[in-house]
Specification:
Strand order of the largest sheet: 1-5-6-10-9-8-7
Distance between the termini: 86 Å
Strand content: 15-25%
Shape: rod-shaped
Bound molecules: phenylalanine
Amino acid sequence: MEIKIKALREQMESGLNAISSKKDLDEFWQAFLGKKGAVTALMKDLGQVPKEDRPATGRVINEFKSYVETRYQEARERIEELELSARDKTEQVDITLPASKNKVGSLHPITITKNEMINVFSGMGFEIFEGPEIEDDDHNFTRLNVAKNHPARDMQDTFYVAEDILLRTHTSPGQIRVMDAKKPPIKVLVPGRVFRSDSDATHSPMFHQMEGLVVDKTITLCDLQGMLDAFVKEIFGSDTRTRLRPSYFPFTEPSVEVDVSCFECGGCGCSLCKGTGWIEVLGGGIVHPRVLENCGIDSKEYSGLAFGIGIERIAMLKYGINNISLLYENDLRFLKQFRD
Ligand code: PHE
């Protein structure tokens, strides 16, 4: 038995020296300490040893076994360290490399345009007021001098939530809400979403408007033109000129459509202005006396001006966007272009 162990010890030492990977380590375990390993086999041989020698031989075998286990453990630690340092080399982090960029969002072009518009009017002393998107017939139509069955209702066909409750078709009901809540002088902007049963390349069932309302003692059409002229110069450039054309809205009298000189061709005529040199941008007028009276404001003492600007329209003109749906699809390739 002792000769056997001696031979095994030599075999084990040379086996240990040859270990250079996890795989070698496993093979060593199988060969010596596994179920069919040489050291385990020694234990089985113990049965053939004469009975009186068995305790002593058993002790020798056990000592040898724990010696092999210790050596195996040492080899294992050596291999683990080796593999760790190899990994350190391959997985090194180069801290001098530029960091990967965080993806930062940006404001939507409608928001950018809205903020810019608010900025210009705030400079003229306008305050902001926001009304509800779900309105009643009274605020959206009747008190704005659009009686039931008035043909002007056709221009603003909308979505009804219930009888006489609807999605507002314009921000003009904001005029009524402001005049109900506040005595003149009034100078407010009402930005917000509006809804119409309308859809093509330049119209969407939901879009944004910005209402302006000024009520004071001597407000005239000149004030309207002056304010809007200053506004378009800020938005489209200082060379831009304005032109008022007669129009019709039940809640203003006189009513005007406001055109700006084409900023693409300077007024000579191009595809943007359809050869006319002018681009229509908004509607407005002098608040109809009946609308003032509907809100308890004496129309002999006070007069007002009002205007309504389509925010999409301004954004599309400003950025050269030819289809309104681009503003709602939220395609990142489109949106990314508006990053500051
Ligand atoms: N509310 C009108 C529209 O949506 C615009 C407008 C506002 C006209 C204020 C005159 C005065 O078409």
